[in-house]
């Protein structure tokens, strides 16, 4: 749990929302936050961690069971785990190659499992939970409706509007997330479930800063980082907005000091501060180097 999700968690806790954090592990800064909010105190929000592999659908379902046990129900779901096409699951390192952990006979890419399939399944599970809350007949959480609304917030990217030879699977996943969000727009007026998302630019998180192969795309003299807190604030806006500007199906793009609604058609695309990666095309040379290796793609 890092970056955007950690900042989002802080904002929720500060606004007195209980939070269940589901991830493989907690980094020290996230563990410190959970520890400081772990104790039951009257009128104070709590944070609970549950070790979760988001590619395991049973474990995803278990997070709802834990949240119900700990907090009495679920109102907001954010499938926030994501990876930026690491070498272990990357189009340019095919299954079975020395860098890939994707199996030749596996029938799946880990990067798609995490970035696309997991958010889809988590959203599906959330809708089922909202429509069929446990113990609703015994004073528990009530079924979702326009008068009793619930929220799902997904994390897309400006990659969902652009192209990038370096990370085609990541780009495909984020295009998919945008289409998925928009396809569910009608759920809010009909059943009370608002599903929308944020599309950050270049975020100063460990997904970039701890991976030299990605960090090399950024020119500190020309590019600007978007801070995770800016994205988290846009996520909260998606949850609480009652003006109709950020309704179901909306994708909010977040740059450095700028946030705007991404239009479904004829959108001009991301531009300006926090959206540029000056050395992106330089990375293409590495792709062609890999393709030039003898037997690329053969196992």
From TrEMBL:
Its family? Belongs to the short-chain dehydrogenases/reductases (SDR) family.
GO MF term set: oxidoreductase activity
Q: Which PROSITE patterns match?
A: ADH_SHORT
Q: Which UniProt keywords apply?
A: NADP, Oxidoreductase, Signal
According to UniProt, the name of this protein is: NAD(P)-binding protein
Can you list the GO cellular component terms from the UniProt entry? cytoplasm
Q: Indicate the secretion signal residues.
A: 1-22
Q: Name one Pfam family in it.
A: adh_short
């Amino acid at each position: 749990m890092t970056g955007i999700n950690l900042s989002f968690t802080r904002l929720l806790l500060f606004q007195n929302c209980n939070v269940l954090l589901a991830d493989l592990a907690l980094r020290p800064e996230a563990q410190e936050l959970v520890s400081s909010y772990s104790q039951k105190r009257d009128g104070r929000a709590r944070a609970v961690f549950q070790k979760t592999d988001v590619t395991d659908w049973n474990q995803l379902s278990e997070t709802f069971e834990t949240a119900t046990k700990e907090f009495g129900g679920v109102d907001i779901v954010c499938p926030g785990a994501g990876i930026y096409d690491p070498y272990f699951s990357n189009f340019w390192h095919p299954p079975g190659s020395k860098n890939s952990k994707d199996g030749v006979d596996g029938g799946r890419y880990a990067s798609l499992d995490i970035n696309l399939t997991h958010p889809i399944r988590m959203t599906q599970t959330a809708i089922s939970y909202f429509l069929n809350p446990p113990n609703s007949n015994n004073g528990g959480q009530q079924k979702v409706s326009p008068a009793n609304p619930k929220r799902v917030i997904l994390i897309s990217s400006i990659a969902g509007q652009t192209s990038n030879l370096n990370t085609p699977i990541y780009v495909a996943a984020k295009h998919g997330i945008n289409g998925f969000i928009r396809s569910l727009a009608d759920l809010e007026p009909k059943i009370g479930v608002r599903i929308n998302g944020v599309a950050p630019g270049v975020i100063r998180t460990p997904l970039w800063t701890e991976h030299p192969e990605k960090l090399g795309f950024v020119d500190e003299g020309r590019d600007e980082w978007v801070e995770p807190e800016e994205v988290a604030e846009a996520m909260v806006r998606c949850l609480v907005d009652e003006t109709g500007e950020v309704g179901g199906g909306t994708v909010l793009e977040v740059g450095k000091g700028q946030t705007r609604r991404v239009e479904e058609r004829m959108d001009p695309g991301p531009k300006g501060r926090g959206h540029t990666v000056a050395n992106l095309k330089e990375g293409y040379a590495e792709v062609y180097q890999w393709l030039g290796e003898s037997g690329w793609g053969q196992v």
